[in-house]
């Protein structure tokens, strides 16, 4: 068995900000190692997302320095045998699941290298904003390893299995523009603006009804994997629960009363 790593809280900062403390900013701060994801940093990410304060309605995940993340800490790889490698990967699954299936939507602000395990981490977020300096790669093939942080499940959902296969076989690197076209990021912004845009989006997400956000994060991806008739039933159950929340009823009343700011506006 692997000895569980102690969380390296000095490599991660968690700041609760925004009106009513509704936004958590979770920042990788291992700048000198390009935010390479050590066991301790993965444990710190897991703890941060499993213990968000109840006031938080949305989170922004970002990296300090020139890069979002250089992926797995390769200096730790050389010490692992097969059994330890298995448990290591399972540890990543728990940490990244705390992001994808946690209590609130997560917006990732990407820049520079989004590479290997860094891309696996970004893929666990719900919305990705990339600035023009962003590049995406999966160099595992050339390092003699495999993805281990849920990337083989999440990345094909973003860009298709055939493109992921090509990236891993050939070492292909996608730039920010191609990455947005393919589906790595939903937003592409000028260099240096990913964090500000991610904060705007998180603040907007935080104004939604919490139960609807929860349904979007937890039911929508599962419905996509269900046979159609199961999906319709899950959708109907989720719709019934979401619309019966007192908060939802008030929102509809506000619109019908013509309250300021409730109309859908052209972008
Ligand atoms: C690292 C790592 C790392 C940097 N593990 N130490 N990931 C990779 O194969 C990517 C490897 N990294 C790079 O290709 C480059 O570092 C970058 C393109 C990301 C950035 O380049 P640059 O010029 O800004 O930085 P640098 O000079 O290469 O690195 C600065 C320091 O960070 C240096 O250490 P120093 O002590 O010599 O200063 C690097 O060794 C260190 N560093 N990246 C450890 N990844 C769940 S399985 C997931 C499997 C994977 O993620 S495989 C992909 C691993």
Tell me what the structure shows.
The chain is an alpha/beta fold and 267 residues long. The protein has two domains: 2-206, 2-enoyl-CoA Hydratase, Chain A, domain 1 (Alpha-Beta Complex), CATH 3.90.226; 210-262, Lyase 2-enoyl-coa Hydratase, Chain  A, domain 2 (Orthogonal Bundle), CATH 1.10.12. It is built from 13 helices and nine strands. It has helices spanning 39-50, 74-77, 82-100, 117-123, 140-143, 151-159, 161-170, 176-182, 194-206, 210-218, 220-225, 228-243, 246-256, and strands spanning 12-17, 23-28, 58-63, 106-110, 113-115, 127-131, 135-137, 174-175, 187-189. A six-stranded mixed β-sheet has the order 1-2-3-4-6-9, with helices on both faces. Strands 5-7-8 form a three-stranded mixed β-sheet. The longest helix has 19 residues, at 82-100. The chain is globular. The chain starts with 11 loop residues before the first strand and ends in an 11-residue tail after the last helix. Bound molecules: 3-methylmercaptopropionate-CoA (MMPA-CoA). Residues 33-34, 36, 66-67, 70-75, 92, 113, 115-117, 120, 139-140, 143, 145, 147-149 line the site of 3-methylmercaptopropionate-CoA (MMPA-CoA) (1HE).
